[in-house]
Write a structure and sequence with these properties.
This protein has 125 residues and is mostly helical. It is built from 5 helices and no strands. It has one domain.
């Protein structure tokens, strides 16, 4: 199997980004349609800020709500997919550079992935 060229890596990364953004937009659209379909939801009081709570602020809570087809959880899941798309891009770059045997770029991409992972895991606290 021959080494992929830079153009091959660029094309696969671009396709993955298009897929991730399209998928997240469709999930948010479906969640928004389900949210607007329910006319019996009480009107929210915007005079006081109320946090979303653990059901929408943790990955487990979001997945639990998606399984139950809760519209707000579906919308939140679409946003999680949107956030995960650039992270997947960096993973694709690590794999592509590893297949090209470009150790410098593998190291740089792994460092970027480490920073992204650290930021996402500590940003929720």
């Amino acid at each position: 199997m021959s080494k992929p060229t830079d153009q091959d890596v660029d094309i696969s990364v671009a396709a993955m980004l298009r897929f991730g953004i399209t998928l997240s937009a469709l999930v948010v659209l479906i969640g928004g349609a389900l949210y607007l379909r329910n006319p019996f939801v009480p009107i929210p009081n915007y005079h006081h800020f109320n946090s979303a709570g653990p059901s929408l602020s943790t990955i487990a809570g979001i997945f639990h709500g998606v399984v139950q087809l809760q519209p707000r959880s579906i919308i939140q899941f679409g946003l999680v997919l949107l956030i995960a798309t650039p992270v997947a891009r960096v993973v694709f770059c690590v794999v592509g550079f590893a297949r090209q045997r470009s150790l410098l770029y593998v190291g740089i991409s792994l460092f970027v992935l480490l920073i992204l992972t650290y930021s996402l895991s500590n940003g929720a606290h």
